[in-house]
């Protein structure tokens, strides 16, 4: 799979710049060769945002992006004015190498907070990557943005005469040092920045925004979408939106499946809610309950821990109406004991389905999360700096 | 220490009713013998509240409580109308034994959700407890409400001519099966229900409400305050309020110190906030961060994980102003690297102090929490039903 180089009009590369002590690939470059260079992006809402986020927010404003440079091995967050200058210098180097404007270069970083980047290595790596750019470079780029990820994440979708490709990094939000999620998506369809922005916000709203591995929000999260227009096809907007949402959901679930230390992927679905907001609030509250998440780790279909979280929300429901179904078994019916909980098999598969029926309307939403395990504690305590 | 029987006018007892399979004490009775019987109470805000909470909310409305019966070994939550009838029956039995009105008997339960109580044992236990009531029974009562607590929790304060005593159960909020917090506080001062209510709400607002071990809210939390007036002293209201807040904070910190699986007690203080709400929001956000809590378990003064949580709040601050001090070392100054983090000693004491300076005003607040440990995961996964 080629990921970001699956659509026509893109070249990419991943190299080892020496930023990571491990000697693994740590720098990626993705270049839009046009003929269009439209783009949109969404960023972390964390107010303690990293320098590359501050920079890239400005870059995206005119709806044009020529290249994205991404490094692992350092987040360049909480590094002050010098850190911002490092990001600026990186963009200028890429611009110079590619013959484009620095204000059309998005910069993404991931790694530890509070440390300056090794700029000599970054700049030398940028030069090496620009020389290695290839229309088959997507897979290499995807590998070089991995941090605690155990596998690279890529996805592709084929539309009517055009292609969408993407890559992502992030071991859920479960990784040490905040597990930044970085995503680059490309398409050769003909779309203007406003269309890309609308489609991207809709797609991330139902995919990455609903993946909540441990409730912790990174300072560096970035999702950027670029179109080259190289396919020469103006897509049906509804089809494009649907495919983009599919691709983003595919990548989001790949992130959860690789969440550090997790032994279960849990889909928490709230149904028959009075509003979408209610459904999301309930699913998110349950997804963030440490007691619920440890119960699932213990293969325990503990519906009491689900209900006690539902009870903390402002969603419309009557407590006595609540049903909870775990892996198809309605273990709680009408806020009381339902079917035999021993019928629930949590041990034989990684996937877990929890359905909460509010009986208050017709809306539904799913939030995906992971269980809380010994390995989560281990990897986030023993090995962080 | 006598706890709830330290003030004059109260008798108490703790017995083994056989509710717990372990054969440990599991039922307590606290009786106000007057001459006054004024009372106030606060309850969980969880909308999935247990039967005894529904019952006791009605009991407290007239400001009179003659007795409190508490059982461990079963929460009587999510048990429907039959569960409510069990609570009602329990109150009637206590009323009959003591010659008081059932509508003046508060009932508290703690244990697993979704299971009916063994009523024969409860009723026999109530009879045994009423026969064992003693003015020295506070300590026995405190032991019999323990669930996963490793030590009983009691506190006493002496005012000008009067006494306040209290007992609490709850192993933080870290225990299996939701770790309900039950607290009974007594005083022999002369106070009316409105005065008790005002003092209790003020005291719980700065004590139990700011202890947030794992962010999970029980279905059964109850704090009840009774005055007997037996000292014949009408206290200075400010003095009483201050002593009550001290006593509640004492009990709250005892709960955190006994939090299951925790190896650190963490005081997260936010200073120089624009408002009390801002200070609380910031302290609470940090207190609920699994990444921060695992870092403390690993003795890692990871200020990046503090800042990234601060950044998710709506509190007033400029990101570039933020300072973070851990155990007296300002490891983050102005949102960047501060003093040498290796100067922070997290290994040699259970207590950890985190101070976040927002530089946006003059308000401050502290939220107390625990670290996230292997034992937390173990005790909430392997041993829950």
From TrEMBL, chains A, B:
GO BP: any one term: ornithine biosynthetic process
GO CC terms of this entry: cytoplasm
Active-site annotation: 180
Sites marked Cleavage: 179-180
Subcellular localization(s) per the UniProt record: Cytoplasm
Binding site for substrate: 147, 169, 180, 260, 380, 385
Keywords: Acyltransferase, Amino-acid biosynthesis, Arginine biosynthesis, Autocatalytic cleavage, Cytoplasm, Multifunctional enzyme, Transferase
Entry's transmembrane regions: none
Keyword Calcium: no
Record EC number: 2.3.1.35, 2.3.1.1
Coiled coil residues, start to end: none
Record's signal peptide: none
Oligomeric form and interacting partners: Heterotetramer of two alpha and two beta chains.
PANTHER family: ARGININE BIOSYNTHESIS BIFUNCTIONAL PROTEIN ARGJ (PTHR23100), ARGININE BIOSYNTHESIS BIFUNCTIONAL PROTEIN ARGJ, MITOCHONDRIAL (PTHR23100:SF0)
Name the UniProt record assigns to this protein: Arginine biosynthesis bifunctional protein ArgJ
Organism for this UniProt entry: Galactobacter valiniphilus
Phylogenetic classification of the source organism: Bacteria, Bacillati, Actinomycetota, Actinomycetes, Micrococcales
């Amino acid at each position: 799979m080629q990921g970001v180089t699956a659509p026509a009009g893109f070249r990419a590369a991943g190299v080892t710049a020496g930023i990571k002590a491990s000697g693994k690939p740590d720098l990626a470059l993705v270049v839009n060769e046009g003929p269009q260079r439209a783009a949109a992006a969404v960023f972390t809402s964390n107010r303690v945002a990293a320098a590359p986020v501050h920079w890239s927010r400005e870059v995206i404003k005119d709806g044009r992006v020529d290249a994205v440079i991404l490094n692992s091995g350092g987040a360049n967050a909480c590094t002050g004015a010098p850190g911002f200058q490092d990001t600026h210098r990186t963009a200028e180097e890429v611009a110079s190498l590619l013959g484009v404007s620095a204000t059309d270069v998005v910069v993404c970083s991931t790694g530890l907070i509070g440390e300056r980047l090794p700029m000599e290595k970054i700049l030398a790596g940028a030069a090496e990557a620009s020389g290695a750019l290839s229309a088959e470079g997507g897979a290499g780029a995807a590998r070089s943005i991995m941090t605690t990820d155990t596998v690279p994440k890529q996805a592709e979708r084929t539309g009517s005469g055009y292609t969408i490709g993407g890559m992502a990094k992030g071991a859920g939000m479960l990784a040490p040092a905040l597990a930044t999620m970085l995503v680059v998506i490309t398409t050769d369809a003909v779309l203007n920045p406003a269309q890309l922005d609308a489609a991207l916000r809709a797609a991330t709203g139902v995919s990455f925004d609903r993946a909540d591995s441990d409730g912790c929000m990174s300072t560096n999260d970035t999702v950027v979408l670029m179109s080259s227009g190289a396919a020469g096809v103006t897509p049906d907007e509804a089809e494009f939106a649907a495919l983009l949402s599919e691709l983003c959901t595919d990548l989001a679930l790949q992130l959860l499946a690789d969440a550090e230390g997790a032994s279960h992927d849990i889909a928490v679905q709230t149904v028959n809610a009075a509003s979408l907001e209610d459904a999301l609030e309930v699913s998110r509250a349950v997804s963030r309950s440490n007691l619920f998440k440890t119960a699932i780790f213990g293969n325990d279909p503990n519906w009491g821990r689900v209900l006690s979280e539902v009870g903390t929300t402002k969603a419309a429901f009557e407590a006595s109406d609540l049903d909870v179904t775990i892996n198809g078994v309605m273990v709680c019916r009408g806020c009381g004991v339902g079917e035999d909980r021993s019928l629930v098999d949590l041990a034989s598969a990684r996937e877990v389905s929890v359905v909460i029926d509010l009986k208050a309307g017709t809306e539904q939403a799913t939030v995906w999360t992971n269980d809380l395990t010994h390995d989560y504690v281990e990897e986030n305590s023993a090995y962080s700096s």
